[in-house]
Amino acid sequence: MEKLKDKRAEYEATASSDSSVNLDDIDNRIITEVLGPKSSQQYMPSVNQAQAEVQRLRDQMAQMQASTVEQIAQLKAEAASRKEKAQRKYNKLQLQLKAEAAAREAEQQENMTNSNYSFRI
């Protein structure tokens, strides 16, 4: 561990005087120098692993998007079904009201006819 700290101090001193040294890469260089190249691979995923992870995340996003689109389509279908059912109920009530109004009008006509008839007698 002490060896890692010493190497870090050495690289930081070099980085402060040499602008070509990348500060972000210091940890990876130290691990590689002190522990060897194989151990640095343990700490840093390979390009293939990173690409595989990116692809996995893209696939997951595509699956979530497809699922969302499917849910939206299902909700739209359910809403259309409810709207159609409400429209049928509205039409039925309208017919019922018209029939009741026609029946009342016919009853009034009949009452007027009967009252006119009773005056003639």
UniProtKB/TrEMBL annotation:
Protein's name in the database: Membrane protein
Region described as Disordered: spans on this chain: 1-20
Organism the protein comes from: Gossypium arboreum (Tree cotton)
Compositional bias ranges of the Basic and acidic residues kind: 1-11
Alphabetic keyword roster: Coiled coil
Entry coiled-coil feature ranges: 47-112
Superkingdom, natural source: Eukaryota
